[in-house]
Amino acid sequence: MKSWLRKGLAGIAGFATMFPAMPVFAHEHGDTAAGTSGVTSFTINTGISSIVFVLLVLIAFVIQARENGTHVSKMMGMMAAMTVTMSSSLVIGTIAGILMNHLFYSTIIGVLFGMLAGYISGLSYSTLASMDGLLSGVMGGMMGAMLGVMVIAEYPAQSILFMDMILIISMSLLYKGIEQEVLSTRDISITLKED
């Protein structure tokens, strides 16, 4: 996928995710959703849009990894799988902790999501990268679930948005690193072919 197209899609997805939360930067009051334990409808909407954003980021990463998997070293593949899995399972675990307000079940959801995302994200690189991603998913899912349960009484929606920002920053740096390595690998292969 072209670099400008990937950046444009990431920007649109990021804006669409952050848009519902732009007017609210203070502590949430009132408007509690029925049947929940103090979670407002704004927090629920922020969580759902964040889940969609994480899934879009993962799909874009898997497509990019399939295109450039052979041009990346094993170390960079492991780092890529660990980065995408840790940051995405941290977001999903946080959302599960906030929406469910139950540490056990939100930990299970975060860990299972992280393990699946880690295995899939590392497949295009190597078995070692898949295992690294899988184990990073366990850690990220557990930490996210703990964070989500802890912040539910204070700033739940803002915590989700903060985790989204960490995901965006991590993925931007990861894509830049992968792009540099792919370009250097292609330059080396072109030089070898000329010789």
Class inferred from helices and paired strands: mainly alpha
What share of residues is helical? Answer: over 70%
Q: Tell me the fraction of residues in β-strands, as a range.
A: under 5%
State mean pLDDT (0 to 100 scale).
82
Using the alpha-carbon principal axes, give the shape: elongated
Radius of gyration: 18 Å
Number of beta strands: 0
The major sheet is characterized as:
none
* Low-pLDDT sequence parts: 22-30, 32-36
Q: Distance between termini?
A: 30 Å
Q: Helical segment tally?
A: 6
* SSE succession: HHHHHH
Description:
It is a single chain. The chain has 195 residues and is an all-alpha fold. The protein is built from six helices and no strands. The protein has helices spanning 3-18, 41-68, 74-100, 103-122, 127-151, 156-194. It starts with a helix and ends with a helix.
Annotate the secondary structure layout.
Blueprint (H helix, E strand, L loop, with lengths): L2 H16 L22 H28 L5 H27 L2 H20 L4 H25 L4 H39 L1
Helix pairs in contact: 1-2, 2-3, 2-4, 2-6, 3-4, 3-5, 3-6, 4-5
Summary keywords:
mainly alpha; 79% helix; 195 residues; elongated; 6 helices
Task: Report a brief summary of the structure.
By secondary structure, this protein is mainly alpha-helical. The chain has six helices and no strands.
